[in-house]
Amino acid sequence: MQRPTLLTALKKIGQNDKMALVSIPLKPKHEQMMKVVKRIVLVFYGFNYFNGFFIHFPYRIDVTNNSTMTPCVGMEPLTATPNKQICLILLAAQEMTIVVVVLNFQALLLFLIAHTAAMYQMLAYEMDALRESLNENLLENMELIRETLSTMIVRHSLTMDVVDLLKSLYSVPLGVNFCTNAVCICLFFYLPLREWLQFMPLLVYCFVVFFLYCFLGQRLVNSAELFERMVYSCGWENFEMKEKRLVLVMLRQTQKRVELLAADIIPVNIYTFATTMQAIFKFITVVKF
Question: Where are the transmembrane segments (predicted)?
């Protein structure tokens, strides 16, 4: 059931992106924001793959280490050839599969949130450009205003549909991810100091993923609020009655709260990140020290 929903979300994102490119003056803004989205995804991939292959893997595929996922039961002795090599290949394939699947899943979610926030920013920039064009000649630009507003209503509806699809797709996974990250961070500080280096990649991974989710969730909220302010201050009081109705429709849509929720309870924003880190610090300080 989740795959058709995801395909629908990707289809709406592609349609929204094509419509955003119609405005020629805003193409540089679109290219700039898409570069930021790509950098976020590439940095996430690069950092975690480096973390996994060069720091995490050596510990996880070491057949003599107690932290391996599976000690290749039934293939003893693991110090002999070819048992050792076969076990290393099995462990490496298992770890690589886990890392690739998890990172692709999370990178897709980060991309969807970042791209949706960028679409809200594009709408805000276009509304601001429309307001500036009104200062030149309102009567001559009225037909352009009418077409632009109609297109923006469609694009805003697509963007809101994508947000609703993201909520239905990732509400439960986000809730599970937030809980597991918080637990992993807490448990890390209960380890002896000599084992910190071994599990440091896991701590860094949990921290980075948790921060990026909350950072991009906050960026989505801020972009939606920016668009709402741009709609209200677009100079609608100088429009004709038909254009005023279009602005009213758009303004009613923008007043709907845009926010991702983990497990339909926890807001995905930077405040959640800050309060969670504070709560973890207090818990560790009180219980351990």
Answer: 40-59, 98-120, 169-190, 196-216
